[in-house]
Amino acid sequence: QSWSQSVKGLELSFDSTRSIGIHDLLWVNDTLILAGTVDGMARSTDNGISWAKYALLKYACRGLSRLSQNVLLAGSDKALFRSTNLGTTWDSVAALILSRRAIVLSDGRILLKTYQGIYFSDDNGVSWQPTSAPTNIGGYFTVNSTSTVFTADYYKGIFRSTDRGYSWTESEVG
């Protein structure tokens, strides 16, 4: 097997003030892949061979998540956007939330990492409520077989929730 660079159609930035440009990737279906970039969203309709600027072009698109069959989330520097038609159109659903990552739990609850903390939604991403998590936690989520949710941050450590993300406790080290 081999790897090849696939950025045809993307203008990637390499200067000292910006990153390479790709923040996140989301495979949507056999014909559509989305990329969150420093200049908005790009899409490929040919299995990643070529890319085109696509949506949310005024924002850096930092995180992409699939919530259900047709519902997608895109987090930017300024707002959280939601699509109910696989990305054909996007609506702002939370103007103050800066999204990083989202995870959908087995019962349908969505947890979303933001610079302001972790938020949850029980209505497929229409509305969001804050949890007790500390602010500005980076990284990803993972869930174990007993439905305990974990998240980590390089500087703040590992946090866990046993109540679907309502409350969070820092894990002990040692």
Task: Describe the fold and architecture.
The protein has 174 residues and is mostly beta strands. 0% of the residues lie in helices and 43% in strands. The chain is built from no helices and 16 strands. The strands form 4 sheets. Strands 1-2-3-4 form a 4-stranded antiparallel β-sheet, with no helix packed on it. A hairpin with a 7-residue loop joins strand 11 (117-121) and strand 12 (129-130). It is globular and about 45 Å long. The termini are far apart. 28% of the residues are buried.
What secondary-structure arrangement, pairings included, does this model have?
Blueprint: E1 22-29, E2 32-37, E3 40-44, E4 52-55, E5 61-66, E6 72-76, E7 80-83, E8 91-94, E9 99-104, E10 110-114, E11 117-121, E12 129-130, E13 141-143, E14 149-153, E15 157-161, E16 169-170
Antiparallel strand pairs: 1-2, 2-3, 3-4, 5-6, 6-7, 7-8, 9-10, 10-11, 11-12, 13-14, 14-15, 15-16
Give a quick summary of the entry:
The chain is an all-beta fold and 174 residues long. The protein has no helices and 16 strands.
Poorly predicted ranges: none
Radius of gyration: 17 Å
| Helix residue percentage | under 10%
Structural class: mainly beta
Gross morphology is: globular
Number of strands: 16
Compressed to H and E, one letter per element, the order equals EEEEEEEEEEEEEEEE
Offer a few descriptive terms:
single chain, 16 strands, about 0% helix, four-stranded antiparallel sheet, about 170 residues, mainly beta
